[in-house]
Amino acid sequence: MLSGAPITVWCYLSVWLWRLVGITLAILVTVLSFAAAVKFLADGRLSPLDTLRFMSYMIPPMLQYALPFAGGFAATLTYHRFAADNEAIACRAGGVSYRALLVPALVAGIVLSGGLLILSNRVIPDFLKHAETMITQDATRLMINTMNRGEAFTWKDNNGERLIFADEVHTLGPRGDAYQVLLLRGVMIVQLDKHDAIKLEGSAREAYAWFSRDAIAEPGGGERPVTRITLVPSDLIGRGEGLGQGIVSKPSFTIYVPNVIDSDPKFFGWRELRELRDYPERMPQVETRRRRLATLLAEREAIAQIRASLAAEGRARLVDPLGRPVVIRAAGIEWVHDHLKFRFIPAPSPGDGSRPEVVMEFHDGARLIRRYSPRVWLHSDWQPDSAGDPLTFNITIEDFRSEGPSGIAVEQRSATQGGFKSAHDTLEPLMRESSFDLLARADRYLAANPADAHFRPFRDDLRRRIADLMLEIFSKTNERIAMAVACLVMVLTGGVMALRLRDSLPLVVYLWSFFPALASVLTIVGGQQMVHDHGLIGLPVLWGGVGGLAVFTAVEYTRLRRH
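^ thats the sequence. predicted structure below, dont judge the formating
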């Protein structure tokens, strides 16, 4: 029996093990990074220099999969060579146990798994952001490179195909919400339908292409990040839908290009994920719904004030876009679900017994104008990007007649005008509240107004999206931890199988550890998706592969010690 630890054997095994880890890891990450970039290189979207830069961004993310298999492969070859040369038998004869012989593999596994855990929660998200930025800007590069070659920038979707030609392309840089703006000169636009028939064709002296980040709704719910390309030609001449006759000064055409790397919590480190749990509105999908709920709450509070004013005085006051006061006389206001609008309830006309009407009064200069209508509708003018704007309403008045100072009534059919403001506007303070505070406020409102069926889905949608985000954060966190633990177990599996099957070929030995390890990785990835989609029911699947690989390794180690 050795009186001390086998330091020499440990150093010998560690040198070989780490040398193979380095060689295997370099080969794997290079191949995986090139595989991620080769599609864009083949499509001409990336130049050779850009491909190298993109590969450098993808190297750290690929370590998440390369490290476990590189560690397992290195442990398999190191210990198989050690066992095949009868060095393991010599150590056993000298009193060194198999447990002691596996210490270098255990240390390597701990180092690799710890490094992977740090990478996946700090380094990898940052490099994925760089890669996403490069891919997002790739739409700009693709348009520039294509048009500089004298070819048409082509994009196909469910509605057909669009072709855009330009003689010159100039880069103007970021402006406003657009991360890039291009100036195109000598522009030709052709749009084809699904049957390749021309729907639109036209030419323009110049056009501006605005590139910005956006998100579109998916059929099954949720949103998908895209790059929005808005093409605005000047003095477009042609024929087709939307052109009419002659010159159209500034029409616009929008193309949505899906991002290759979607924005989700995989771009966040541990600290950012913790902050995201407390402030989910940092995600665009949540923020859009939060602003919508805040607008609806402000709308309901403004309507409550209007209803109270109508009940007390028989009139309500608004302010039009020009800052002029507008008085609306009605019996009340009610929600009409079929129209998704509020309707002023007409008040009976005094004395003459004519039909009930709603009366709008405002001043046009020194003149007092009255409008009489049986149907006046009111609804908030909400836009997704109107976070800093005050609450405004649209008013639609149907079959109305106008009466001026001369008393002459002018019959009109209908008119819609926006920009009306309420004196009771709480939108600004509501916009500053967090998602959780707004949800609590929405719960209190629904408890007091249970019949408001239109408001409830918006509250539920925000709560559902936050719950989905929390599950996604939980699943991503468990996936990263499980992958790190799997890395440790895979290194030990390779060492144990190499010692037990010392008389077999190295490839055969590695396959005995590779397939269980591959199954473990697949269950981690599949379990993460199950946790995201179905909750905690997917957690046994996520961790089941790691547990199964650990049990397999423990059983094989027991057989190794027995024989």
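Residues 456-500 form the longest helix (45 residues).
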